[in-house]
Design a protein that fits this description.
- Helices cover about 60% and strands about 5% of the residues.
- The chain is an alpha+beta fold and about 250 residues long.
- The chain has two domains: about 70 residues, Glutaredoxin (3-Layer(aba) Sandwich), CATH 3.40.30.10; about 150 residues, Up-down Bundle (Glutathione S-transferase Yfyf (Class Pi), Chain A, domain 2).
- Strands 2-1-3-4 form a four-stranded mixed beta sheet, covered by helices on one side.
- The structure holds glutathione.
- The site of glutathione (GSH) has 12 residues, from α1, α2 and α5.
- GO terms for molecular function: transferase activity.
- InterPro entries: FAX/IsoI-like, Glutathione-S-Trfase_C-like, Glutathione-S-Trfase_C_sf, Glutathione_S-Trfase, Metaxin_GST, Mito_Protein_Transport_Metaxin, Thioredoxin-like_fold, Thioredoxin-like_sf.
């Protein structure tokens, strides 16, 4: 992470660091990974209340004093402003492939991740403890109960929570098996260097690969050498020794 703070430094609002990662938020991890690879200085501000963001979601940034949400829109804007393009030189086919992987993990796998983190008993136990750590003691249990209810409703609306736990686990494992088969010996998704798609897929994968809770899809991710090696490689490439310092 850059520490060249100045009044004009980009401020990036993310959930707390955890699990040896600079943040436990998947889309925030994607954004931080992108910023590191693009070489854009930033100041990370930990804010665990996503409702403070302009879209009610984490992450968001402050650009020219104005808040901006959505990691995809932020990356597009910063890429334009800084002339930083991780996808330079990619063929249309490589771009299309990266796009399909990114959408798979952001739109489908994300549902599985949130389900395991909020609605699986091991994930929920972590979240209860997490709120106990980051929120004022008297309100922490209430806050956890409120977030839990909100996610249950949201995950039902998105579709995933309408399935049985077995079906949800099978759906998550299917995403991982497809990615592991595709990765094989590839160091990164579509090139011999990390591109935008890698920042997104890593952001969504790494929390489950590095969290210590035993949830079915996270356990499966940890059992796949190609997935584990890919996350280790991306973490090292983006955050280097800093990631090791943050390890719980
Ligand atoms: N499309 C958004 C997704 C962000 C997102 O879903 N953030 C989640 C955490 S990973 C969040 O803030 N959820 C809180 C909520 O929905 O209330 C992006 O790319 O930034």
């Amino acid at each position: 992470m850059s520490d060249q703070s100045s009044p004009s430094t980009l401020r990036v609002f993310t959930f707390s660091p955890d699990w040896g990662l600079p943040t436990n938020g998947p889309f925030a991890l994607k954004l931080l990974a992108w910023l590191e690879l693009a070489g854009i200085p930033y100041e990370q501000v930990v804010e665990n209340n996503s409702s403070k963001g302009p879209k009610g979601k984490s992450p968001w940034v402050e650009l020219d004093g104005k808040p901006m949400g959505d990691s995809e829109l932020i990356v597009e804007e910063l890429s334009r402003r800084h002339g930083a393009d991780l996808d330079e030189g990619l063929t249309p086919e490589q771009r299309a492939l990266g796009f399909a992987w990114r959408r798979t993990f952001e739109e489908h796998y994300h549902q599985v991740l949130e389900w395991e983190l909020l609605l699986h008993s091991a994930g929920a136990a972590y979240m209860r403890e997490f709120f106990g750590r980051v929120a004022p003691k008297p309100v922490a249990p209430l806050l956890f109960a409120m977030i839990w209810r909100q996610f249950r409703k949201q995950l039902h609306a998105r579709g995933i929570a309408r399935h049985s736990p077995e079906v949800i686990a099978a759906k998550g494992r299917a995403d991982l098996d497809a990615l592991a088969a595709f990765l094989g010996d590839r160091p990164f998704l579509v090139a011999d260097r990390p591109t935008t798609a890698d920042t997104a897929v890593f952001g969504l994968l790494a929390p489950m690969v590095f969290w210590p809770m035993n949830t079915p899809v996270a356990d499966h991710a940890k059992s796949l050498p190609a997935i584990q090696a890919y996350c280790d490689r991306m973490r090292e490439r983006c955050f280097g020794s800093k990631a090791q310092l943050d390890r719980p």
